[in-house]
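request received
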Amino acid sequence: MLYVVIVFLCLAILMYLLLGGADFGAGIVELITPRAVREKVRTITYSTIGPIWEANHMWLIIAIVILFVGFPPIYTMLSVHLHIPLVLMLLGIIGRGTAFIFRHYDAVKDDMQRVYNLIFTYSSFITPFFLGVIAGAMVSGQIDPNAPDFYSAYIGSWLHLFSISVGIFTVAICGFLAAVFLIGEVEDEAIKALFIPRAKVLTFLTFISGGFVFLAAEIDGLSLTKEKFTDWVSLSFLILATICLFVLWKYLRTGHKTICRLLAGFQITLILGSFGYHYFPNFIIVKSGENLSLFNSGAMGLPIETLGWALLLGSLLILPSLFYLIYSFQRRPAEL
Amino acid sequence: MATSHYKYLKTNDYHQKALTKAWSRGVAIFFVTGAVSGTMLSFELGLLWPEFMLHAGPIFGMPFSLEGTAFFIEAIALGFYLYGWDRFNKWFHWFTGVVVGLSGLASGILVVSANGWMNSPTGFDYVDGKYINIDPIAALFNDAWFTQALHMSLAAFAATGFAVAGIHALMLINGKNKVFHWKAFRIAIVYGGIAALLQPISGDISAKDIAVRQPAKLAAMEAHFETSKSAPLLIGGIPDVEKKEVNYGIKIPGALSFLAHGDFEKEVIGLDQFPEDEQPPVMITHFAFQIMVGLGMIMMVLSILYFFSTWKKKYWQEKRWFLWLFVLATPIGFMAVEAGWTVTELGRQPWIIYGFMKTKDALTPIPGIQISFMIFTAVYVSLSVIVSFLLYRQIKSLPNMEGEQPAENQSSTQH
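response:
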């Protein structure tokens, strides 16, 4: 049953990165579009992600619940030592979600719209950035349960070049996902022409910031690069992901929206898979070397058994209905 | 919302459709605020009480994982519901609205069950400071879950029913769209009123339950300092914690014994049975309890007034004083809910897991937690201001609907 729970945890993280990521990215794309067409982008965003965005963010809750029920030492370690980035990420989540709905449901469209837009776009940027920082901090080996002072316990654990580079990388991934996703929805050729170069810039940024992660790892003295290039499975994942990028560019021009989306999703899955495989089963790399892995910190016995069953039964209810929801609104986006 | 939608589908009443849409916008605004707060909650548990979660997570995780499922289903159903007008079979669409309500109720019950476990921890053995032989299902069905879940579910219906009815009553006083607002008022007050009438029964079950399980909480609620036979029920009063006395209260002899144990003579345990450092704060718990009960009583009286007037004195409902009573009652349901949570949470102190772990031992080691408290308080205060502002704008911008359709097909049969 432990394996079932681990599969669900990985699934929840992946789904959050893909679906939630495309969501965050929509805000980032809005941020980099010229003012003149922003209104148009907003409408497209709302009609495509409006019906499903609530569900997208449930994956994060699922992942967190799995962590605290199944792997309480991991959850506790995260929430103590990464307290500050977690709080900043939460503020982003609150601001973004509420601003997105408020701007649509405010019956009077006045200056308040500007406030909502501002909150929405900037928190769309902040949230994935800190998600990335947290992910980076987890594997950076800078978390130190025996830290002597405030700085090394609560700030040094996450404030270093490597984590920040992962944060930037995550933002780029989200923007990239959203750009590819939204292009499929644009029917107006003039706007499409505006979108494609931006999608390319975001793709390029994803590539560059991905490289920067390795550079930062080197500067911070992590052996990521060396380990990566000797680990053939995870390296081949990365290479495959890069190849996908070129194929994707080709299809973006001809505009096969389904193929583009699948490729982008597949590519991100590969990147996450590559890093996941690299560190598995370790979840948090601790300074002292007593790493927390999915095998040594799981709650054994009945808690894991019941959690596994709850997830299996829950997914019987959730997955078909979620699939039907996405399918229905893919075929015909919501009218406003 | 599902009720007015049902009425629309049955009677094809234009007003009911407009009402359904208006309420569903309210649901959407509340849902997103609830969803982000729910995300917050699952993080804050660890951000604030890591030591508690380290041990309690696997034990009381069951309701949380089920609650996650219910919440997920609610989100999916809401996606279908809000964006699904004229897209799906109309009864399927209506059904997704019902699912929104039911899964919302289910997640409420499950979260309350998790809180019930903190009051009445079961499903594990505590040996040498370790929590072993964990049984999450026994923890889910802890001794407190039923009484607490019943009380909270009724409270949710009462609070929402009264709040919605109050807003529509205000609109009725303003005099625009009268027929429409009457229909809205009736649906809301029937839900709220029935819940408010049932609530005292549920309260009585709860009182008898905590008299046995958490006598210290009951003693704090009633500012009952000394253990005594035929204990009096205290109404009002200012407890003097130093002198262990109560000033200015009304005491009904024997009534507390009766409420707690069903016997006017029986002994009720007082705070003197507990060491100083295991006593909950008396003052606030007592006041919060009085507020909750008082507001509950007002809602009950208003419900009786409504049902009586529908039955016998229909013309009362045309009077302004009648509507003003309900306008004034708009916030009291929610105030009662907050007061009730204050009672149950403060009454459990100093324990976070009743009898096993103290709250101060569960606290995060990070310094400066006050800053985080202030930030989140500010965020929530501004959120509630914005939500109220949005709802006000929604209501204000309702179009004039008088006379667009023959309005005299009000179904007099309520549920």
